[in-house]
Amino acid sequence: MVIVGILLVALFVVKTCNRFKDEPQTTTTTTTNKKDTYDGRGLNRNPSNINYSKHARCRMACRHITEAEVKAILKDGKVNYNKSELSGADCKKKYAVEGTTTDKQRVRIVFAPCNTEVTVVTVIDIVAEWDCDCG
């Protein structure tokens, strides 16, 4: 049992270290919270899947923002309509949602919903400048 635990920890460390080495353009996280139903309009606050662009993953890593914090902002954050792009087809819209992370960063996260999924496009710290090399 101890050996299996050590192997799991080692696997986690290796995967974490190699996260950006061969990362595809987007990654997906399935959510299990389906308390609210989505009517197909606007921003889906409880999507079946959350996809993360490579750029968003880089920004999250640079700014030490977790998937849990992104989900919390999606669920409870306030849409900044001045920074959102809401014209065009449903799967082309982008919602800029603002909120505060657990370590008190004021962030704006751009979400692009399409059907029952949402893609995280980028993560911006509204207050502080970060030296990120995300290309």
List the helices and strands and how they pair.
Layout: H1 2-17, E1 26-30, E2 49-53, H2 54-63, H3 67-76, E3 78-79, E4 95-100, E5 106-114, E6 117-125
Parallel strand pairs: 2-6
Antiparallel strand pairs: 1-2, 3-4, 4-5, 5-6
Description:
This protein has 135 residues and is α+β, with helices and mostly antiparallel strands. It has a single domain, classed as 2-Layer Sandwich (YaeB-like fold). It contains three helices and six strands, in the order αββααββββ. The longest helix has 16 residues. It is globular, with a radius of gyration of 16 Å. The N and C termini lie far apart (43 Å). About 10% of the residues have low confidence.
Please state the structural category: alpha+beta
Tell me the β content: 25-35%
- Number of helix segments? 3
**Biggest β-sheet, characterized?**
6 strands, mixed
Looking at this protein, list some descriptive labels.
six-stranded mixed beta sheet, YaeB-like fold, alpha+beta, 3 helices, 135 residues
Question: Summed up, what is this model?
Answer:
This protein has 135 residues and is of the alpha+beta class.
